Amino acid sequence: MNRRPVPHLHLIGPLVTDPADYIRIAAAAVRGGCDAVHVRILGGATEDVLALTRSIRQATGGATLIVNDRLDVALVAGADGVQLGERGFAIEDARRVLPDEMLIGRSVHDIAGAQAAADAGADYLLAGHVFDTPSKQDTPGRGLDWLRELVESVSVSVIALGGITTERIPDVMAVGAYGVALGRELLFADDPAVTAKRIANQLARPTPPVVLSRSEGPLRCDTVSV
Amino acid sequence: MSDLAPRLRRYLVTDARAGSVERLVETCRAALDGGVTAIQLRAKGWTDRQLLDAALALGPLCRDASALFIVNDRIDIALAAGADGIHLGVEDLPVAVARRLLGPDAVIGYSPESDADREAAEAAGVDYLGVGPVYGTGTKLDAGEAIGLDGLRRAVSATRLPVIGIGGIAIDQAADVVSTGAVGVALVGAVFLSDDPAASARRLREVLP
Fold first, then answer.
1. Exposure string over B166-199, b if 16+ CB within 10 A, otherwise e
2. Is A76 an 8 Å CB contact of chain B?
3. Stated pTM of the model
4. Range of the domain at A24
5. In whole angstroms, how large is the CA radius of gyration of chain B?
6. Residue A2: inside a domain, yes or no?
7. For residue range A39-85, what is the model confidence (pLDDT) as tens digits?
8. Cα separation of B173 and B195, whole Å?
9. Is A51 at the interface with chain B, CB within 8 A?
């Protein structure tokens, strides 16, 4: 199995922005350290979703590309993973269709759902919404205590979503989140690259052990995969 | 694929107005009992989960009835449910891409919107064409102006592929439609939105044995 590591800083869009804006913002965010870009168009024509996904792939290079719900588009565009909503494919069904190396993330909104998704083999969970957000005005944010409980109830990586701002990152990471997913904070930033960098710097990343080897040739510095 | 044409003869297209996965599946079961030879799963606006649940139920039903099972647009749903094929339009994934994902045995249908479009699809390896709207349609509001029997006849003579007529076709008109050289009719409203889908399908089989 050759699945990519789960990314830490996810950009979720395009939300309300124009596709061309989203491509530009995604490219900037990736330059700043954002390591996953999601393409999420609800109810869009297949050709539109595919066109945007391909453009994002071109504009963001090696960042992990994740397509919401549309496994067909993910396959065709060579995306690295899919994000499944609660009304999307079941994880087991998605696994049957997707190559083994593709990441499967599942969006969850409660602890029972999180446990079910983890049991079904999700690579990571997108849990939210943690804070109040204009995207979900009918439901208040579930809060940090909820996030902590959710993180502790599963053994897969939990990405926090919903109303997350640069200032709130330390609190979110303190309750055990593996990473964060943001829309507005990056989409409406004056400079998405700067904002992404500020956020990336606050995410506690596990650093692989460094091995110095002197076996042959000049001194080399290798990382060991763990 | 010499045996495809008879399987396209009485072709049922589902409709989101079924309202629920259960009702859609039950309607299809009744229509299969009544003799439809193919089912295309199409339900605009439904969630992926609803589509997939419907597809997973329809696959075995169609297999048991030796009917063709086609999914509209969504190759991922077709793959997950083991459908026989896919039906594509101009806004969907390119035919060549669908062929690559689904393999050489998959049945790929296409609804062309122009001659150039049809020729490109033929070159890319589609297996049949859906041509219409033959008559005015109440079920697909964006379908464009009716082409009539003459338009359908022209489309049939322009291609070597099997053609099914679609769009606003009532059961009593099915014989006229195949008189153009079309191998079958695709019905939405006439079977799917009828009070008794099994009876409607049986009547279609009488008209179009």
1. bbbbebebbebbbebebbbbbbbbbbbbbeebbe
2. yes
3. 0.87
4. 9-223
5. 15
6. no
7. 998 878 899 999 999 999 999 988 999 999 999 999 999 999 999 99
8. 19
9. no
Question: In this prediction, what percent of chain A has a pLDDT beyond 70?
Answer: 89
**Who among B48, B91, B93 is closest to A89 (CB)?**
B48
Report if residue A1 sits inside a domain.
Answer: no
With 0-12 / 13-18 / 19 or more C-beta atoms within 10 angstroms meaning exposed / middle / buried, residue A187 is: buried
* CA atoms in the 13 A half-sphere facing the CB of A67: 29
Count of domains forming chain A? 1
Helix (H) or strand (E) holding B33: helix B21-33
**Residue A174 covered by a domain:** yes
Q: What is the pLDDT of residue A217?
A: 42
| End-to-end CA separation in angstroms for chain A | 14
Closest by Cα among A17, A27, A23, A21 to A55: A23
Please tell me whether the interface predicted TM-score (ipTM) of this complex is above 0.95: no
CATH of the domain at A69: 3.20.20.70
Q: How far is CA B165 from CA A10, B14, B29, B38, B152, in A?
A: 47, 16, 23, 14, 7
Question: How do residues B39-68 score in pLDDT, each as one tens digit?
Answer: 999 999 999 999 999 999 999 999 999 999
Provide Rg for chain A, Cα atoms. Answer: 18
A202 lies in a domain?
Answer: yes
- Catalytic residue numbers of B? 42, 111, 140
Q: Which residue of A has its CA nearest to B43?
A: A43
Rounded to 5°, angle at Cα B27 from B21 and B31: 145
pLDDT over threshold 50, residue B191: yes
